[in-house]
Design brief:
Blueprint (H helix, E strand, L loop, with lengths): L1 H10 L5 H12 L8 H10 L4 H25 L1 H11 L6 H10 L1 H10 L4 H11 L3 H26 L4 H28 L1
Helix pairs in contact: 2-4, 3-4, 3-9, 4-5, 4-8, 4-9, 5-8, 7-8, 7-9, 7-10
Length: 191
């Protein structure tokens, strides 16, 4: 895994880095284990003026890859989806997760798209549970947009000094943000 991570960092300097980012973001949403942020961060630090382009490519490719994950769940769960989830250690909790996912599909996709939770798990589960495709796409665009544009904004504004914070603690910040978002939703709904 470390060699793969180091390879991704080296690719940030490559002339075809935007294409590599698109491939990584696409694959991460359905099968790949490392998030595109690892490649985005050094790319944006090296060229801050391209921050929005880099975030846009990551978002579009990630949502497109999410559609592949959705298709795997909807059309090939037994042959592809279940082995992918099993390899990630999620096989034991699929039935329980299925019930929770059906009840909170929008929030599950939003949460996984923003937080460090593996997005591929949610994309496959969205297809497997039959989540409406339009809801999935809209939620994935919102979630991945928030995640990638926030990273791009922080790096564009603060530059290299924020890199360590993003690499070490941004997942925690996204998770806290998502919890606050859900809490606000419940307060508004029940008050």
């Amino acid at each position: 895994m470390r060699r793969l991570y180091d390879w991704m960092l080296r690719m940030a300097e490559h002339p075809n880095a935007l294409w590599v980012l698109a491939v990584i973001a696409f694959a991460e949403a359905s099968v790949f284990p490392i998030p595109p942020d690892v490649l985005m961060i050094p790319m944006i630090i090296a060229r801050p003026r391209r921050a929005w382009l880099i975030a846009s490519i990551a978002m579009v490719a990630s949502v497109s890859g999410g559609l592949l994950g959705y298709a795997i769940g909807a059309l090939a769960f037994d042959s592809l989806g279940e082995p992918i989830l099993t390899a990630m250690g999620k096989a034991d909790s699929m039935a329980q997760f299925n019930e929770a996912f059906v009840d909170a599909g929008f929030w599950a996709v939003l949460g996984a798209g923003i937080t460090p939770f593996p997005f591929k798990v949610i994309t496959i589960m969205a297809g497997w549970t039959g989540m409406p495709l339009a809801t999935f796409i809209i939620t994935a665009v919102i979630a991945r947009g928030i995640r990638f544009y926030l990273v791009a904004t922080l790096l564009w504004y603060f530059g290299a000094p924020i890199r360590a914070f993003i690499e070490q603690r941004l997942g925690l910040v996204f998770t806290a943000f998502f919890i606050v978002l859900i809490g606000a939703f419940f307060l508004i709904r029940f008050i």
